[in-house]
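Hi team,

Below is the intake form for Topoisomerase DNA-binding C4 zinc finger domain protein from Pseudomonas lactis. Please confirm the fields before the structure is written into the shared record.

FORM ID: S-0412
PROTEIN: Topoisomerase DNA-binding C4 zinc finger domain protein
ORGANISM: Pseudomonas lactis
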Amino acid sequence: MAVAIFQLLVMGKHPYTGRFNGPDLTLGAAIAQNRFAFSIARRDATRTTPPPGSVLLSDLSPPIAADFETAFGLTPTTRPNPGAWVDLLQGLETDLRRCATVSTHYFPSAAGGCIWCRLASQSGVEMFPLGLGAVAMPMAGPFDLDRIWAAIQAIRLPRPEEVLPIWSGDLGPSNAALTQANSNGYDRLVFGGLAIVGAIFGFANVPAAALLWSAIGLFGLFWMFNSPKVDTTPLRNAYLDADSRVLLASQAYLQRIGLKEMFVLRAELEDWVTQYRKVEGDLVQSLMKLKSTREARQRTDFLDRFLISRATIPGIGPAKTAMLASFNIETAADITASSVRAVPGFGEALTGKMLAWRQSHETKFRYNPSPAPSDIQAENTVRSASATKQIDLQNKIRTGLATLQAAVPRCLSAKSTPDQSLMQALADRAKAQRDCATSMVAVPPPAVITIDLPKKASIQPTGAPPQTIPKYASTSASTRVSGAASCPNCGASMVRRTAHKGKRAGRQFWGCSRYPSCKGTRS
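The structure came back. Fields below:
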């Protein structure tokens, strides 16, 4: 019973057929050695992996996976009884989810995604194709892409410094010890300078007392340049620590008010628009591919009628047939030299017999250039998938545009209620910077605050390409733009262009992406 239920759930694959990490094993030997090919708990012991393109135990719910481990484990007395299997299958039925891509796909929620779409992409075989009846063709509503794209381009996203607060409060009194140390140093400079001036004056007026004036001058020099040194390391470290806290607090603040999400959404909108422009072209290419592969599909459909399980092939018995089925070889259409050789136990001799059996049926195939019902069904399926993608992109673009338009004023209004932790970090950095300046300690410039955008998809649109969003970098006092610049007139993104006339002919410059409506440039 466990074998039958297992084959029902994993599309006919036998639980003991797989790739053994060792000499080829027959199905009987694998069963005798308890090498459950799909086992997760005993994977190291079985040294066997499932055939390619298989439903895995991890795709099933944990209770069913655990009972299969028990059923094909080392203790026969603990195998589940029929009542337990009934309960497990009923639980699996209630746990199924419908695929959002293919309406005929239902999969266990434990899989995390559609297992049938995954297997179809691996093997090229659709396990649950749509019926041959009329395909419900989704209809896309009116959608003015140019108007929506213009609305997206018109949205000017705020720069980081436009929403980050700037410290402008009272820094309070300076550190008393630091002030006293600086004052003492100043006093020594003044006193030493006066002594040197007095010595020079004495030399000029009473040269006979040259020895005295020399002593006074040397004392002044010693007093000026032998002042106790102030350790500036704590001052520099205090500034660096405060600057680091400003960076972290600024990034957290920009994340909290949604500025980064706005740039990410803008990038996603551009990507969706690019994909939308490609839908029609992709549909044309898919239909052309269907037409060019019509003969191959007819041949596959013809060969698919001849089942290996019903054939008489020398050397291929029930065990070999089960092994072939576990490796997705069930009909004449599945037989190729490489696929048969990949099955354990099939060498050149058996592979040659399988190919000869396929060839005996393939010689009877006759191509019909007229479209068959399956051809019409395939074309309708492609058109339906294209329309579904178009509708999905329309909904994403409309929703994303509305979200972005509402987010900009909300983000700008957040500056009126600045974050207290950020303001405290800014105050601490300003104080540390003042103390360093007082002691003439050089400090590095403030840390640069960046907004990193995800990499854009490398899809080339059929129409005008959306422009790249600049990556903005800001400090509390200045902004640095890395990547593409922004237009000084309207704030839109800019693109590299080449001058064709004038004294800069042949040189590149930054031009506004909204040209000719905006003629902003940067060198």
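SUMMARY LINE: The mean pLDDT is 78.

Thanks, M.
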